[in-house]
Amino acid sequence: MLAKSLVIFIGVGLLAGFAFGFYLLEIKSTNQLVFVEGPSISLVTEKSDFKKGEEIKITIVNSGTTQLIFPNTSYDLKISGLFGIMMYAPISSQVITTLEPGDQIVFLWNQIKNDDTPVLEGLYKISSEGIDSMGNNVEKSITINIWK
Question: pLDDT tens-digit profile of 68-94?
């Protein structure tokens, strides 16, 4: 017969596993595009899990009702590791660009870092930051997985 403490620990472990699983299910929502009233930016990819070397299509959408202003022609797109180490930012010029409500721009990333080396498997953060008409920062980031 099993000890009482072992049964209790297994029961608590199972409950914690289910609770954590439901929590992660809520966090990993595949609905990346939500239109709102006011300033908003959305980043959309076809999926969140990619194979190593697969081209990633990133769409930046002005999902709000006000114009967004960006400091460069890459719409301030940045891809970094989860620890904040910059991996990739498109080559751009320092020309102020705008994105009207409902408009979108598409970037393709071939999983090559700015130093022309391929990225490793892991989690990556894609982010973009603009400014609304009131001068407030509007930013959005999503995470993607790159697997073998």
Answer: 999 999 999 999 998 889 999 998 888
- Read off the pLDDT of residues 91-145 as tens digits, 9 standing for 90 and up: 888 899 999 999 999 999 999 999 999 999 999 999 999 999 899 999 999 999 9
Where is 16: in which H helix or E strand? Answer: helix 4-27
Q: Which CATH superfamily is domain 41-147 in?
A: Intracellular proteinase inhibitor BsuPI (2.60.40.2360)
Contact call for residues 33 and 42 (beta carbons, < 8 A): yes
Enumerate the domain spans of the chain.
1-30, 41-147
Q: Which residue has the tokens 């930012």?
A: 89
Please report the beta strands in the chain, taking only residues with DSSP state E, as ranges in sequence order.
Answer: 41-45, 49-51, 56-62, 68-70, 78-81, 86-88, 97-99, 104-109, 122-131, 137-147
- The string of pLDDT tens digits covering residues 12-49 is 998 888 877 766 665 555 556 888 999 999 999 999 99
